[in-house]
């Protein structure tokens, strides 16, 4: 817990902390701004998929990132129930898809078209999947329907899952250092597309029907990353609600902040302080 007690309140405004670096950065940026403005701020570790329930129950006030690509129906239901509100877009656009380093096109020039994958499958193979290619997905808990996508599109690939996000991107670092072709789950905003030259596979365009009918013969959805919070936030915390609503950051800028932590080894608080120092005129206007 950080910050001082705000006027008229003996409890702090409670922010959800999820388990990925980008979300912790956005949360710490706004939390630190409010702390400097004299508000008491509390950070609560919570599972991403549980945070709507925690907001509705009054145990959390703000969640700085709710991806429209993950659980949008749950958010719409929570808003309709009356205790959860959408506090605006973050300025970031979520993208999650199969990704390959740019040098892979030297051996598979048909990329990024998904229809080129089968002709190049063997170059993405590992001993466990040969002669089929390997697609390295995120941890199983990330979902993504990749096994279903492989089957629906008739791809000559085996889906393997990294145990952790760290394992997933350690594989990327190792492969790129050796210029080995690799095909894996990359999402944005993230440090990987900020620091490595590559492209996402161009699958058939996502449609609601593709998922609703459980066909999965399309790419993954893309869309805004929202800020969400208690429906009565502005009544209880008018200035913090205004600051949360005003917060904006781009994918590229966030990708570099994440890279400072994940690649350069700088701690999150230092990265946040650096951003605040560079952007004082921006964030101070969020409090006006």
Give an account of the 3D structure:
This protein is an alpha+beta fold and 288 residues long. It folds into 2 domains: 2-93 and 224-285, Periplasmic binding protein-like II (D-Maltodextrin-Binding Protein, domain 2, 3-Layer(aba) Sandwich), CATH 3.40.190.10; 94-212, D-Maltodextrin-Binding Protein, domain 2. 37% of the residues lie in helices and 22% in strands. The protein is built from 12 helices and 10 strands. Strands 4, 5, 8, 9 and 10 form a 5-stranded antiparallel β-sheet that branches. Helix 1 (21-36) links the parallel strand 2 (13-17) and strand 3. Helix 1 packs across helix 10 (251-262) and helix 1 packs across helix 11 (268-278). The protein is globular and about 60 Å long. The model is unreliable at 1-10 (pLDDT under 50).
List the helices and strands and how they pair.
Elements: E1 2-3, E2 13-17, H1 21-36, E3 40-45, H2 51-56, E4 62-67, H3 72-81, E5 84-101, E6 133-137, H4 146-153, E7 157-161, H5 165-178, E8 184-188, H6 191-195, E9 198-200, H7 208-212, E10 222-230, H8 233-236, H9 238-246, H10 251-262, H11 268-278, H12 280-285
Parallel strand pairs: 2-3, 6-7
Antiparallel strand pairs: 1-3, 4-10, 5-8, 5-9, 5-10
In short:
The chain is of the alpha+beta class and 288 residues long.
């Amino acid at each position: 817990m950080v910050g001082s007690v705000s006027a008229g309140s003996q409890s702090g405004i409670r922010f959800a902390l999820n388990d990925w670096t980008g979300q912790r950065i956005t949360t710490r940026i706004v939390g630190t701004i409010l702390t400097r403005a004299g508000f008491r701020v509390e950070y609560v570790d919570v599972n991403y998929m549980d945070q709507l329930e925690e907001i509705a129950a009054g145990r959390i006030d703000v969640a700085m990132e709710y991806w429209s690509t993950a659980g949008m129906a749950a958010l719409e239901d929570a808003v309709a129930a009356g205790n959860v509100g959408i506090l605006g877009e973050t300025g970031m656009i979520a993208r999650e898809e199969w990704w390959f380093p740019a040098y892979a096109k030297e051996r598979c020039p048909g990329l990024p078209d998904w229809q080129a994958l089968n002709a190049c499958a063997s170059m993405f193979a590992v001993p466990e999947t040969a002669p089929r290619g390997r697609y390295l997905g995120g941890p199983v808990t990330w979902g993504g329907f990749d096994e279903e996508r492989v089957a629906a599109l008739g791809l000559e690939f085996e889906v393997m899952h990294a145990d952790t996000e760290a394992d997933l991107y350690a594989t990327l670092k190792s492969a790129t250092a050796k210029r080995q072709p690799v095909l894996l789950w990359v999402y944005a905003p993230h440090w990987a597309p900020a620091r490595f030259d590559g492209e996402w596979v161009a699958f058939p365009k996502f449609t609601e029907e593709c998922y609703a009918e459980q066909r999965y013969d399309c790419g993954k959805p893309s869309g805004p990353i929202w800020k969400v919070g208690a429906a009565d936030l502005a009544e209880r915390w008018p200035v913090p609600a205004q600051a949360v609503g005003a917060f904006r950051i781009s994918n590229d800028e966030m990708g570099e902040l994440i890279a400072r932590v994940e690649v350069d080894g700088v701690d999150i608080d230092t990265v946040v302080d650096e951003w605040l120092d560079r952007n004082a005129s921006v964030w101070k206007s969020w409090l006006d």
